[in-house]
Amino acid sequence: MKSLTRLFLAGVLLAPVALFGAAFEGKVTMKMTSGRSQAQEMSYSIKGDKMRIEITGQKGAMGGMIMDTGKKEMIMLMDEQKMYMAMAIPDAAVEAAKKGDDAKLEKTSETEKILGYTATKYIVTNKDGTKTDMWLAEGLGKFMSASPSNPMTGRRAASPEWERALAGKDLFPLRVVGKDKNDKQTFTMETTAVEKKSLPDTIFTPPADYQKFDMGGMMKGMIPGFGK
Length: 228
Description:
The chain contains 4 helices and 12 strands; from the N terminus they run αββββββαβββαβββα. The protein has a 12-stranded mixed sheet with strand order 7-8-9-10-11-1-2-3-4-5-6-12. The chain is globular. By secondary structure, it is mainly beta. The two termini are 22 Å apart. It has a single domain (2-222), classed as Clam (outer membrane lipoprotein receptor (LolB), chain A). A hairpin with a 5-residue loop joins strand 10 (172-179) and strand 11 (185-196). The chain has helices spanning 2-14, 91-96, 161-166, 215-222, and strands at 25-34, 40-47, 50-55, 62-68, 73-78, 83-88, 105-114, 117-125, 131-137, 172-179, 185-196, 211-213.
């Protein structure tokens, strides 16, 4: 049971912080780095308000994650066990998409062609004085925060300011570069491939022979007060 819990929590922490708007259907690949950690490549299959996330080269029981913003549900697939776990997407992720007034975008005159899309450079100045540079493109739908709450405590996790600045806007980040006060890079997110294509509905649901695992019931038994 504990190993399954660790897999689920790892999946939540590795989940991307982006959901494409309904205008886009297809597959997108991104590469993310943070600090000294090794670059992590993730692929996203997007259709309407559903997204399937898979980590390239991932080994082990975790087979992927499905997010359905219409149902406000997140599903973790465990291929080795032929099981899946489901939990509600925190309200904070939905509310963040309606906000953004505490984080402002500064548009620059700098543009760059990225994967065939014209991306304009924007800058977000954070409250702590650090900055985030973003190259944003139109035509790929809206960006929404999906930063999860801490599943071990039930507390809400604040979305990064650059995410909130994009909420509700018809702009999608093809490149994001976070910097510290000394202008040193601390985080990067780079879109490496965009493939528009029709996707079957079946990839956004657990396979019929997978059994549902009651994560909430297990956590309540392990952690007093969980979910309150």
